[in-house]
Amino acid sequence: MPAPRFCPACGSGGLSRQCPPGDTHERLICAGCGYIHYENPKVIAGCIIERDGKYLLCQRGIPPRPGTWTLPAGFMENGETTEQAALREVWEETGVRADIVSPYSIFSVPKISEVYIIFRASVIEETGEHGPETLQVKFFAPEDIPWECIYYPAIRQILERYIEERQAGVYGIYMGNDDTGKVHFIR
Length: 187
Description:
Blueprint lengths: L14 E4 L8 E4 L5 E2 L4 E10 L2 E7 L8 E2 L2 E3 L6 H13 L1 E14 L4 E13 L7 E7 L12 H16 L4 E5 L5 E4 L1
Parallel strand pairs: 4-9, 8-11
Antiparallel strand pairs: 1-2, 2-3, 4-5, 4-7, 5-6, 5-10, 8-9, 11-12
């Protein structure tokens, strides 16, 4: 998202990047009223939903990269908890009502300023209807997942790790990032 050209507080066009006193980062500061505009990462919340050894994926119907597959997940809205955001995204994208079982992953992608928070969830209801951002919804056995068509690298890493853990019968909280390639696993 591009930085604002005008101050959100007073409408002045006098925004410049400076490090406010006592801060450690440059921020957009209004020369007119002193308003500090913070640019923070986006939070993506979603769920891994498993049923009978198969995993729920949705095929993207919108840019970027329509036709690719992903876990049901999306941007958190103001006023939501991460759990509410994850369940809303599952509903909007797949027509599935779900219940969160546990947190599963916190994955940072600093290069694009995103943080993925993924939960384990179970199906409560399947409507057979999906939202307009989705071309199709399908449960895949691990060997049938279209791995080369998973759009987001973070989602692919999270899902691969989850399937490994599922096969081993252990779950924890998977934490990692794409900068260092290090993945932490807490049992």
